[in-house]
Every structure is written in structure tokens, then in C-alpha cells.
Protein: Peroxisomal long-chain fatty acid import protein
Organism: Sodiomyces alkalinus
Amino acid sequence: MAAQSTLRHSAAEEAIAAFIDKYSNLVRTKLRNTSRTTRLLATLSLAISIIAGAAGGRRWWKKRREEREQGRKLVRTNSSLFNKDGSRTIYVPYKDGTSKVVIQNTKPMTFDAHRRLFLNPPRVSGLGDGTVPSAQTKPGLNLAFLHQFLSLMSIMIPRWSSKEAGLLLSHGMFLLLRTYLSLVVARLDGEIVRDLVAGQGKNFIWGLIKWCGLGGFASYTNAMIKFLESKVSIAFRTRLTRYIHDLYLNDNLNYYKLSNLDGGVGQGADQFITQDLTLFCAAAANLYSSLGKPFVDLCVFNYQLYRSLGPLAFMGLTSNYFLTASILRRLSPPFGKLKAVEGRKEGDFRSLHARLIANAEEVAFYGGADMEKQFLNKEFKSLKSWMEGIYMLKIRYNMLEDFVLKYSWSAYGYLLSSLPVFLPAWGGQGGQQEMAQRSGKGGRERGRMKSFITNKRLMLSLADAGGRMMYSIKDLSELAGYTSRVYTLISTLHRVHANAYHLRGQQSELYSLSDVQGTIQKGFDGVRFENVPVVAPSLWPQGGEELLESLSMVIRRGEHLLISGSNGVGKSAIARILAGLWPVYRGLVSRPKDIGQDGIMFLPQRPYLSIGTLRDQVIYPDGHGDMREKRKTEDDLKRILEEARLGYLPDREGGWDTRKEWKDVLSGGEKQRMGFARVLYHEPHYAIIDEGTSAVSSDVEGHLYETCKEKGITLITISTRASLKRYHTFNLILGGGENGDEWEFERIGTEREKLQVEKELQDLRERLAQVETWKARKDEIERELAQVWVDGGDSLNPPPYVESKEDKGEEVEEKGKDVVTMGEETQQVQAEEVDTKEE
Ligand SMILES: Nc1ncnc2c1ncn2[C@@H]1O[C@H](COP(=O)(O)OP(=O)(O)OP(=O)(O)O)[C@@H](O)[C@H]1O
């Protein structure tokens, strides 16, 4: 009986009971030894803290209620607030009320602190030379992976007091609880079978009741583990996504530079941010349970088996793990690398689809479906064959894994469970019981049965834990692949953000990103270029292509500039340099500080329409909140649209709050006029308009230019249309000289320009004077052509339906008159143009 009761209470249960006893006794003795005053004081402080807690709780509840009500009001008018510390408070509808969400921006100091991790990885990790990380390091289970994973962890769990740490802790607690429950279940299983074999009905029923109770608790634990795993995954993803967004979309224009200048992550940043990040977070959260839980299980179950089966079994188990791990590691394919390449291929395929959707209209006009299908199928084929390759590799690995982990481990388990029976001296507690029970046969068999069932269950759990540990080698390799992709994205973003292109001890190429020596001065009331080469950059580390050797000019408020020249000479390049998209390789560029109101505004060549309402299109890049702050009303917007000749839009589209795919709804000219509406809304001091009226009729074009000028906006127009000269003061002509790399900057309407027009007119007059000669020649040719020659040199008479010679002569005269009239008209137009320029 005594032996049985010892068996019933497990060592763990005993340890817990002893622990509780020890500490309750300690508290009781402490209480007994305290003085009355101390006890009184303690009671008082407890009462005060309860009252203060209740008062605080009431205040918190009241504040929450007020906030909720305020939030509800805010939802109706403006659902987001900008706080002083740069964070944003958003009120989102939740159930019946409103939920407040505060979005904290990542502080610049955090980026500075992380730069070391992402841009200067330790040499030992093999990630680059300690100055610039290399994206080429093969993803796998190596030191590079450890460094990358820990670096990402510092973003995902920024502090020990953060929510993520709390989630991981509670996840860990549930994992431990499940291990403990598995132990209890294994023991209970043994007991139930023993009671069944012994025919002890009462104990058997009691065992079953305990089994059901335990089952309910275990199911709850399992559900919580899954729930917390998903919570951890989404919490990681939220941290990383916000961090990446703060680094990607900021004033440094990293979203443009990442794919246009750096090229470290190719063109598919979207794939990195959406899919790879999700997979990484899911794998990282899963790793905690797929590696942490089996590890705890292994320790606990090994200890238990060591106690019941003895040291021999323990040694057997340990050597088995090492053997299995080394076999699987040696024979497992490089899953990390395979997953990283798969991610890239998935990204390429997806971006092709995204391209097609974005350019559906153009493709449809060309009827380019077949060609696009070919591109898509080709990309898919490459992805498919890569994935098939992975599946093929997995067959061999899965076979090996299954055989080793399921069958050979079971056989090995039976062998170890038999140790107390066949080798009791080496069989630990089981062996001792075996020897003690040798007297009674029935009791001995029941004891063996119980021990075997308990050990078998422990062994099964152990095999499961060991199996999961071994399976997680594969998970770990896959995680290494995702980690490498996410790390590459963040380190590239850091490189772009910090302009970290200086290669230690290496010669940089001319006009590469490590050769940027120019200055951009923000806060100048005008636009100035001083000895600035206009260079089209190439992806780092290659050098760019020089379009203009050195450009110098100044434009002040009220002096409008037209930049003209043939296609591809670098007109838009000047705007890109001014906007900070392209680097200033040499010299000085000065411009106003702000973009938008009272600053400078750029209208790009391809009109852009954002997602959102009709109102959002006019006020872009402002939001509704900014519009209210600027005290602009919808009447103001209506007036602006009328000035841009788009006054009919709100009625046509069904009001300001209509949401549509505006890029498909508005015509080419309407899109350009919407651009002008934005300029009129923001009223910047300077506006750079890149081919902003190419699809607008000339009367509206004139009206738009005049309106902007009336509002005091200084215009810098990029266009090939000479007719725009009349609205500008200066003309920068690009593409001169033999190589097309010279430029001229001149005032419009100068003596020289007048002379040029005079010369052109003279030229035309001279040509018109020759009209009579051309007329006579034309008659002659027509006469020749009208004759039909037959063999022998005679000519046939014209058929009767051919007009008589006199009629024809008259007609020729009429045509001559037309030509003369046309000539006069051309002269008149030219004269008018000269007048306008003189004005
Ligand atoms: N992102 C880029 N990266 C590298 N080179 C570029 C890039 N964009 C344009 N270029 C090149 O720079 C040169 C100048 O381009 P830009 O757009 O300034 O021409 P443009 O004078 O405005 O022509 P257009 O009148 O056709 O608009 C072109 O040869 C073009 O191929």
C-alpha cells in the first residue's frame, strides 16, 4: 500500500505540495512574529490602497466613457488626431461605440540605434565586411542567421515590459502547463489500466472522472497555446510592419530611392513587406512552440524516464537524439536558401500581375493579352519548376524523417521500456519495483502493466517532442530563408535612409551613389542651380549617365521659366533633382523648403490620382483633417474646380464623398486639369509643371496659366510646346550642340529673339514669292501626265469624261489663288505672333 501511495503521488506533485507548505508556513510564522502596530499599519495601508485603487478605477472608467463619447463625435467629423509627440490617435468604430487606437511613430533615435545592427553586422556573422551588409550570404543555419534573427527580435520585442514580451511569457506558461499535464496524463493512463486489470471498479471509475476533468483542462490549454501563438505572430507583424512603413515612407523619399537608386531588393518591395514578412512572423511565433515546448518536454520526460527506467535508458535516449539530429541535418536539403528563392519568384510573379492590373487599359488598346500571357506563363513556369524541385527534394527527406522518427524510435522505445523487466538491476525505479514485486505473481504483472503503460506514454510524448524538435530543423531552415529576406529589406532601407554608400578603401565609380558631393539648400526664395551636372543615376554601385555637364541658372519669385528641348534631353531630370529624387552630384541646388502651401509643388508628367473621395483628389496630398485645419470649405473647392474648368465634376460624380477608381473615370485632359486644381488649392509660391497641359485644349491651357499667375504662383514649365512661351519670362533650352548636351538660358522677347522671328518671316516671304513659278511647273507636269502615248510616238486623245483644257486652266488658277490666300494668312499669323512677343 505504502509503495502504491508513493507511486500515486508523483515527484512533481510532491514538490509542488512541499513548495506551497513551505511558503504558507513561512507567511504564518512571519505574521505571528509581527508586532500589533505593524499589523495595524499593514491593515491600514491595505485599506487605503483598496480605496485608492477603487477611486482610480472609477476615474479611469469615467475618462474612458468620456473618451468614447468624444470619439463617437470625432468619428462624425474627423476621426484622427495628431498628438504633440508625433503619434496619431485614431477613433475607429468598434461594436456599439468607438475604440481609440494610438499609433506611435518610430523615433529617429531608434533608427540610429538599429543602424549598427543592420549596416555594420559583426564580421564573424559573415554578413559583409563590417561596413555594408551583403545580401548574398546564403540563408541557412549559421551565425549570419543568428545575427539577423536577433536583430529583428530587437524590433519585435523592443523592451521586456512590452506587450510582446508579456504575450511570450503567457505563451511559455501555457506551454509548461501542457508539459505538466502530459506528465499527469501519462501517469493517470497507467493507473486506469492497472485498475482495470486488477478489477478495481471504484478506482477505475474515479480514474475516468479524473481523466475527463484533466481532458477539459488540457483542451483549454491547447486552445490557449494556439491562440497565443497567433497573437504573438500578429504582434510581431504589427511591430515590423510599422517599423518598415516608418522607414519606407518618410521625407527622405525612401520609397522612391529603394527601387530607383539602390536596387538592393529589386522592384518587389511589396512582396517583401506583405508576404515575406507575414511568413517570417508566423514562422518565428511557431518556432517558439515548435522548439521551446519540445525542448521543455524533452528535459522533463527524459528526467522522468531516467527515474523510472534507469541511467542506461537515459544514455540510450540521449545518444539516439544526437544520432538522429546529425543524420537529419546532414541529409536535409538547404531549405533556407530554397525558401528565399521561392519568395523572390513568388514576388516576381505577383508583380507581373500587379503591372497588368495597373496598365489594363493600355494593354487592352494594344490587344496585348497574348504577350502578357506569355510573360505571366513564363514567370509561373519558373516558379512552378522551382517548387516542384523543392517537393522532389522533400520526398527523400520526408521518407527518411518518417522512418527515423516514427518507426525506428518506436522500436527503440519498446526496447528501453523492457529494461526494468529484463535487466531490473539497470532499470531504475521500475527495476526496483520489479524486484520488490517478485513475490506475488498477479501483483507483479499488474505493476509491470502500469509501469509499461506509463513509460510507453512517456516514451510516446518523448518521441513526439523529439520528433517535433527534429521537424523544427526544417522549420528553422525555412525561417532562416524568411529571416534573410526581411533582414535584407530592413538593412537596404537603413542604407537608403542613412545614405550609407561609402565603401571603405574602395574607389567609387564616377556619379555612383558613393560619389555624391553636391549640396541641396532648402529655404531659398527661388530656384537656383549652380554648376550642377544633370545625371541620370544608375542602380548602385554603378555610375550614372551625364546628360548635361554643368547647369547654372536662377529663377526668382514672379519670373516664370519654360524648360524646353527635344525628348530625352533631361528636362524632367531637372525637376527630379530639384525635388530630391535624384542626387545632386556636384554644385549647389537651392529651392524653397516646404512642399505645398507657401513652398514648391511638383506636377509630374504622369498625372496621379489617389484612392479616396473626389474631395481627396483635389486636396491631395492633404487629407480631410488638413483641409479643415487650413479652414478651406467645400465651396472653396468648388470654386477651385471651376477655375480648373472642372466645375461639373461634383454633380456628375455624385458629390464630394464619392469614391471611385479615379484614374479610370477621368479623361487624360481632366486628369491634367485636376493637377492644376491641386496647384490652385495649395497655392504654392512655385509650381513645376511637367507636360501638365499636353492633353488640354489651348484655350483652357491659357486660362489655367493666367489663373495660376494671377494667384502669384511662379511657374516652371517643362514642355516641348513653343506656344507656351507667351506665359513665361525665361526659356531654358536643352539639347543644343552636336552631342545634345548644351543648354541656353534666355529671356523671352529679347532683341535676339525678335531678330530670329524676323529672319523666319523673311524666309517665308521669299518662299511665297516663288508661288507663280511653282504654279507654271505644276501645269506643265499635269499636261504631260494627261497625255497617253501609243506605239509609234503618237498620243491618244483624252476620253470624253476628262474636263476640257479651259476648265482645267481655270481650276489651276483657282488653286493658285488659294495658295496665295494661304500665304497671306500665314504671314498674318506670324505678324500677330511677333506682336504678342513684343507685348
Ligand atoms: N529613373 C531613371 N533612371 C535612369 N535614367 C533615367 C530615369 N528616368 C529617365 N532616365 C533617362 O534620363 C534621360 C532624360 O530623361 P527625362 O525624363 O529627363 O527626359 P525629358 O527631356 O523630360 O523627355 P520627355 O520630353 O520625353 O519627357 C533619358 O535618356 C531617360 O532615358
Remarks:
- Residues 317 and 412 are 9 Å apart (CA to CA).
- The first helix runs from residue 2 to 8.
- The two ends are 120 Å apart (CA to CA).
- Residues 260, 536-537, 547, 567-573, 605, 720 surround adenosine-5'-triphosphate (CB under 6 Å).
